[in-house]
Amino acid sequence: MQVESQPAVCLVTGGSRGIGAAIVNALAAEGMPVALNYHRSELAARNLAERLQEQGNRVLAVKADISIAAEVEAMFSQIEENLGSVDWLVNNAGISLRGLLQDISEDQWDELMGVNLKGAFLCMRRALPGMIRRRSGSIVNIASIWGQQGAAFESVYSASKGGLIALTRSLAAEVGPSGIRVNALAPGPIATDMLTGEMTLDELAELSDEMPLGRLGRPEDVAAACVFLLSPKAAYINGQVISVDGGWKL
Ligand code: NAP
Is the pLDDT of residue 187 over 80? Predict the structure, then answer.
């Protein structure tokens, strides 16, 4: 019988803000060594890492644009040298894009797919050989409810998350025999910069009223589900997409 053990290190991409930062906090609270990737928010990433280090956690902030293979390679090398092997991976980094499809430029398509889909591919491709060698690994991809249902004015974003879901399911079948699980979360509206940057206060209040639980999701709601899926408590959950949307689209 294969029993999952406590992993060496967890890497969270886009761990500087929002949902990623909540996942970093939740993992550190469980005593996990965490590598926290950031791209532009250096100050936020360093502050979070320092605060957790002061609390006795092993946390490393690592800069990389995850859409660039060489930066992903350098990030993994830095983590391996300073913390250890990555056994848990959270592909969380993402960007959003609103607009009519005919107004989206090729550069915007490339940038969005580069972060939301290629970034996850690059990180999983780099992490998997070590995970397979150790027969130890758990991956959670942060998709979106739009990746399942699609959304008007967010077709490119939705396509990237739909692709991430297909990647999750396919890879789960591929690497399950090597003792590695791959799952995804599909959050609904979560109160982070991504959401508040796109909507007015009135729109946010309206959306909140629409939610069966009477509020928007919090980053911590996603983080709790993520830590569970990563952990041996979810040892027989593989290739699944779990909604964290407060029952919004039932
Ligand atoms: P957010 O607050 O805007 O944070 C985005 C994170 O992604 C930041 O940490 C950012 O890092 C990082 N990032 C962006 N481009 C990157 C790149 N090229 N390389 C590395 N990191 C990069 O967004 P969020 O709401 O927390 O979203 C996190 C994930 O949840 C995303 O995948 C998003 O699509 C998904 N999601 C969010 C919602 C929602 O309602 N908020 C709903 C469904 C799904 P820097 O700031 O350091 O650049």
Answer: yes
Q: Is 157 a catalytic residue?
A: yes
Q: Is 222 in the pocket of ligand 1 (CB under 6 A)?
A: no
Residue 46 forms part of a structural domain: yes
Indicate the residue type of 23: I
Which residue from 39, 46, 148 has its CB within 8 A of the most atoms of ligand 1, so it is best to mutate? 39
- CA–centroid distance, residue 82 to ligand 1 (Å): 25
Residue nearest to atom 18 of ligand 1 (CA): 65
- Average pLDDT of every residue of the chain: 96
pLDDT digits 0-9 by tens, 9-19:
999 999 999 99
Residue pLDDT, tens place only, 65-88: 999 999 999 999 999 999 999 999
Q: Which domain holds residue 50?
A: 9-244
Cα distance between residue 205 and residue 110, in whole Å: 33
Provide the H-helix boundaries in 8-65: 18-29, 42-54
CA distance 191 to 141: 19
Is 1 within a domain?
A: no
Instruction: Tell me, yes or no, whether 2 lies in a domain.
Output: no
Considering the domain boundaries, does residue 3 fall inside one?
Answer: no
For residue 13, the domain's CATH number is 3.40.50.720
Percent of the chain with pLDDT over 70: 97
Amino acid identity of 57?
A: N
Angle, CA of 51, 54 and 59, to the nearest 5°:
70
Exactly one of 88, 121, 146, 157 is catalytic; name it. Answer: 157
Residue pair 167/121 in contact (Cβ under 8 Å)? The answer is: yes
CA of 196 to the centre of ligand 1 (A): 13
Domain count, the chain: 1
Query: What letter represents residue 110's amino acid?
Result: D
